[in-house]
Amino acid sequence: MENKKIKFSDLFENFTGSGNINGKYWIVGLESGGEVNFKNPEDEAVKALNTNNIFNILEYFNDFNQETENKGFLGLEKKLLTFLNLSDFHVVKYSNNNEYFHYPRYGNVFRTNMFPLPLPDDKHETFLDKLPLYDKYFYFDQKFVEKYKILLFYKSLRINRMKKLIKVKPKYIFILYKNWGKGFINDFFNELFEDSYEKKETISEVDVFKGNKKTSPVISVFKQRGSDKNMKFYIESQVL
Q1: What is the predicted pLDDT for the residue at 147?
Q2: What phi, psi does 180 have (nearest 5°)?
Q3: Strand, coil or helix: what is 54?
Q4: Could you tell me the sign of the dihedral formed by the alpha carbons of 45, 134, 150, 177, in that order?
Q5: Rounded-to-integer distance, Cα 78 and Cα 76, Å
Q6: What is the per-residue pLDDT across 83-130, written as a single tens digit (0 to 9) for each?
Q7: CB atoms < 10 A from the CB of 92, how many?
Q8: pLDDT tens by residue, 176-209
Q9: Residue 85: partners with Cβ closer than 8 Å, 6 or more residues away
């Protein structure tokens, strides 16, 4: 029955992130990582989705205390925390000897993504291809399907939700996905911080965006396959 499905607008509006939204640093990713293995009933995402409970699903997709895995986005995230001298607090080793990210609400870091559902990329055709898999759990109105973009038809819902949670603006926002570029920042962060961001310079492969207000955070956009040396130099010379 359609009325038993969760409204995707409700999920997206309440999808925030993990850690302290009023912390000094934000780490921003594209989506919740990896593809859901719908054929495996033991897949953690599948188990959360099968509860058909928005709070369980939000708890899963908002939780970034995942295994670090020294590769891809997660590897870049770990390196960033290391160069910020925060890895001792935000990377912990569990009893299974594996390392996991740790973003407590009282810390200095907020970790979030722009899109709650795991997808291989941000193309409209990819979303349409995967839509039948998620259609079992969510109700997507037709406007959403027709106008889908990475920031979604519902982005203003999420921005309004985050505005209510933000009491202190972050000092720095680190975007770990170079391909978003200026358009992405204009579409989301201009509205969130009520400012107008412009790319000011590129320092060691890192694109630096700044708003007109002194209180607005500096946005740094990193290459996913940039060099460790460049990331380390940028953090040490521009942030710390």
Answers
A1: 62
A2: -65, -45
A3: helix
A4: positive
A5: 5
A6: 999 999 998 887 778 888 889 888 899 999 877 877 766 666 777 787
A7: 14
A8: 876 665 667 877 899 999 999 999 999 999 999 9
A9: 240
Q: Residues 70-75: contacts with CB within 8 Å, 24+ apart?
A: 72/224, 73/29, 73/30, 73/33, 73/176, 73/177, 73/224, 74/33, 74/101
Q: How far apart are CA 172 and CA 45, in angstroms?
A: 30
- Buried b / exposed e over 208-230, threshold 16 CB at 10 Å, is bbbbeeeebbbbbbbbeebeeee
pLDDT at 148 > cutoff 80: no
Q: Single out the residue of 144, 86, 136 nearest to residue 111, CA to CA.
A: 86
- Other Cβ atoms less than 10 A from the Cβ of 189: the count is 23
Dump strand ranges (E) for the chain.
Answer: 6-7, 18-19, 25-31, 91-93, 99-101, 109-115, 138-139, 172-175, 198-203, 206-210, 218-221
CA–CA gap between residue 40 and residue 101 (Å, rounded): 25
What residue type is 148 in one-letter code? Y
SS3 call for 175: strand
Model pTM above 0.70: yes
